[in-house]
Design goal:
The protein is mostly helical and 80 residues long. It contains four helices and no strands. The protein is globular and about 30 Å long. InterPro entries: ACP-like_sf (IPR036736), PP-bd_ACP (IPR009081).
Length: 80
């Protein structure tokens, strides 16, 4: 799975979590860039990622994420 495919799926997850059908993701995007991105939203994102990509994310991996690009890279690594 390439980064474009991952970003497309991830965008769907973010749009559902934040109830924003126009939300566009960018690699440098952080929690401060999206209104309502709190700990509950993060849990919903992680659950969505695990379900849609059929992977498991460890707490230390999630704790190390700083940007959407980091999440995309982690998903790419886990789905390779």
């Amino acid at each position: 799975m390439n980064n474009t495919e991952i970003t497309d799926r991830l965008t769907g997850i973010f749009r559902e979590v934040f109830d924003d059908p126009k939300l566009e993701l960018h690699d440098a995007m952080t929690a401060s860039d999206i209104a309502g991105w709190d700990s509950v939203a993060m849990i919903n994102i992680i659950v969505g990622v695990e379900e849609r990509f059929q992977i498991r994310l460890r707490t230390r991996e999630v704790d190390g994420l700083k940007t959407v690009g980091d999440l995309i890279a982690l998903i790419a690594e886990k789905t390779a």
